[in-house]
Amino acid sequence: MEKILEVKDLRISFHTFSGEVQAIRGVNFDLYYGETLAIVGESGSGKSVTTKSIMRLLPENNSEIKSGQILFDGKDLTKLKDKDMQKIRGKDISMIFQDPMTSLNPTMKIGNQIMEPLIKHQNMSRHAAKERAIDLLKLVGIPKPEIRVDQYPHQFSGGMRQRVVIAIALACNPKVLIADEPTTALDVTIQAQILELMKDLQKKIDTSIIFITHDLGVVANVADRVAVMYGGKIVEIGTADEIFYNPQHPYTWGLISSMPDMDTDDEELFSIPGTPPDLLEPPKGDAFAPRNPYVMKIDLEQEPPFFKVSDTHYAATWLLHPDAPKVEPPEAVKRRQSQYQGTVGVGNGVALEKDKFPGKKEGK
Amino acid sequence: MSNKDISISKDMFAPAHIDPSKSEKIAKPSLNFWQDSWLRVRKNKGAVVSMVILGILIIMAFVGPMITPYTYDNQNTKHNNLPPRIQGIENVHWLPFDGTLARRDGTVYNAYEVRKVDAYYWFGTDNLGRDQFARIWKGTQVSLFIAFMAALVDMAIGVAYGAISGYLGGKTDSIMQRIIEVIVGIPNLIVVVLMILVLKPGIIPIIIALTITGWTSMARVVRAQVLKFKGQEFVLAAKTLGASNSSIIFKHMIPNMFGVIIINTMFSIPNAIFFEAFLSFIGLGLQEPHASLGTLVNSGFKSMIAFPYQMIIPSIIIALIMVCFNLVADGLRDALDPKMRD
Amino acid sequence: MAQKEKLLEIKNLKQYFNTGKPNEVKAVDNVSFEIYKGEVMGLVGESGCGKSTTGRTIIRLYDATGGEVLYNGVNVHGKKSKKQLKEFNRKMQMIFQDPYASLNPRLKIADVIAEGIDIHGLAKSKEDRMNQVYELLETVGLNREHANRYPHEFSGGQRQRIGIARALAVQPEFIIADEPISALDVSIQAQVVNLMKQLQKEKGLTYLFIAHDLSMVKYISDRIGVMYFGKMVELAPADVLYKNPLHPYTQSLLSAIPAPDPISERTRKRKSYDPASHNYGDNESIEFREVAPGHFVLCSEKEFKQYQAHYKH
Description:
CATH architecture of the largest domain in chain A: 3-Layer(aba) Sandwich
Order of helices and strands of chain A: EEEHEEHEHHHHEHEHEEHHEEHE
Number of domains of chain A: 2
Strand order of the largest sheet of chain B: 1-2
Order of helices and strands of chain B: HHEEHHHHHHHHH
CATH class of the domain at 43-75 and 135-340 in chain B: Mainly Alpha
Strand content of chain B: under 5%
CATH superfamily of the domain at 43-75 and 135-340 in chain B: MetI-like
Largest sheet of chain B: 2 strands, antiparallel
Distance between the termini of chain A: 6 Å
CATH architecture of the domain at 43-75 and 135-340 in chain B: Orthogonal Bundle
CATH class of the largest domain in chain A: Alpha Beta
Radius of gyration of chain B: 29 Å
CATH topology of the largest domain in chain A: Rossmann fold
Helix content of chain B: 55-70%
CATH superfamily of the largest domain in chain A: P-loop containing nucleotide triphosphate hydrolases
Number of helices of chain A: 11
Helix content of chain A: 25-40%
CATH topology of the domain at 43-75 and 135-340 in chain B: MetI-like fold
Shape of chain A: globular
Oligomer: heterotrimer
Number of strands of chain A: 13
Largest interface: A-C, 40 and 40 residues
């Protein structure tokens, strides 16, 4: 498998009235051709900031990339000039936003909005661009595209608008598509349709997708691989099966077990106590330590490195260190692990050097 | 950070105890709305400088008339039309405070020496020999008083009218809004001129004239805010708790509008000063010997070529007040507007 | 179920907006259900289906266009004296959706929570008032020190708990929770749901729990009503509704919720709902009928027979 995008040791801070907020504190991940990588996390975990930095959409006046690289096609996006970035944005990398109501221009015809990137990036004639716009609308499942192409956004329902947004994002056959909570503003039944559509399209046009969401159900539906973010860092990354059936980080445990599924009848839901960390003054050691029921002394002193669980699965928790005591994960996680056992043995504790992390082995 | 480099002793893996009550702790110091806003205003240099200048102007408006030996209405025709002269810097000729005047042919002479006046009029004197320094600060005082009073009355009427109109809604709202539209529809210059003609020029009539149309913009702003807050959940929550209408308006809505109200008032003060100056300029302002910035500019204007200082100094003061109030209002808007918060 | 005491009875509730105008909206259209003492009744549906409007109409934030809301047998709507209204306000409380909008940003937490205490004169002295506030803060898992802070200093979950404390201050019997967790992060949702469940047990509260997140609703509710375009289409005990959904809309809704389970997600078949699929005739009466004890479905006579014939017991 070939990498299309590499994020290396990314650190981003925001300068606010109260001080420096360290929104991203050393994020590493790779994106491979044709895969869907889901980034999960709570608000403030840094998931949106990470992707906005890839698109270079962070506000310039108060954000600062402290260190790190974002490599795309051999170019470091963090160092690109604005003009060069404009050539990549919308062509090689495009983005879908959360709210379909505000991400379309209400005074422009749908067709023109789809044609804009085509004319700009691919030097198409207006006529050819319009043909392509109709094709794209057909592709995203909008009925009667020949008529719809000349309509305005207010004539579309929420789900239909999100389809249009997807059509615009896909207009130039981007290599990477970033979807920032694309279904959060939609109703469940519409959400299901949009997810279906995105999976379908990915097969057809072979784009890599970074899918940001806080909804684990959505992740299970779309993701090949999952990165769990907490406090500005990735705490666990692996294939969807590994994250859902053999999670290793106590935060992932908490996330999974605090979501009741249809069979949950437990008297009390598992819940993660406390509140997310304040990134104005990130805690020493593991950011999750204050909410971690399995906290050890070392969590309060040192940040855990990534421990390898399998070739594709890494988790940053001291619990995977050979010296750490064996702990019992919550019931819901145990149920999932037993479901998963036999497929892959539960790995333990090989600490990794940071620069080797993370990734699938090539040729997998 | 390779694993080998860290020496980790086994006892580091012992469970640690964390006080669960600490997980709810808030580390930040508690700031209320005003402290928070002040921090924000402070970052805006223009606003801070403007506040300082306004502070000085306001202090001078009260202190100024007292620190000269002359009073604002004391006429001394022997000393009329003297240019500004200040002790200590009278020999610095590039400053306009050396007591010199230019004749029409361009020659410069010292008016004090020529007319053998042994006195210092810091801002000069007018055509009746009244001390301009005292008159200007007295005028500033009067202008500011008129502006502040007008703004306060605007605020009181506007907030009450807007809140009632927005909160009651329905037919009442429609009728009240039509009334505002009628008032706004009549050119306010006509209303003001008629008011002054009926009431005779003076401080109170000018305030009344200014407020009779001025409150409408505040009423509209407040009504829009009330409509916005009416659907907000904290207002609904108060309703479900059984709060009375007045407590919802005064406890929940108006405190949340302070920002908007203050900003609106801040913008209406320079407007009022400007309008007062304008009225004076067209001869409907205060009558002699009373002075306001507008009357000073008006009388200075008549001898603008021969004695430019008589018009320039009050004009500068008006301009300063207007610019500073606008800058402060701008700074406050950025600081108080919740949308600008991060 | 028959022995259970009815706390709230909603009869043919109608809430129309812009009545008589071309843009008339029937937000709630002829909805009837009952809530028993001590139970959690869930209300689910998509945005715009009228579930929140139903809740708000019950608590009199809107005046109902038609129908009755009987609380302990007394109609909530209609003309009331101030005293009656206040009494009613004490018994019925509401928790709101948006923890950022539901607390007045200019009030200290102590004053937010004590608002109900002040209105109803529940405190004997200033000290008593503060003690009640402290107690409420501790009930919802916050500290005394939080009383002097302002809402913007709290996280979403903490604010939601403050909202709960405010509702509890007047010692209500019945709480309408209007999407109390949908604006919260996953890890915080469980905290709030646990707190609500625990409070219910301790104080014997009755809830109307409005949400679009079906898995949480299923977890907390005893019975669930499904709404679609202003109408209640199905009402059944929580387990029954999930195991045996009858109305095609309920089935579609259930099939659409993504489960945090990749294996089942891969094989999942979604069902979509088309209101035209009922093929109702012009003279068929579409009514809310009891297919099995406690399980109501909005259906025609013909469908009713079908449902009964195929009912899985």
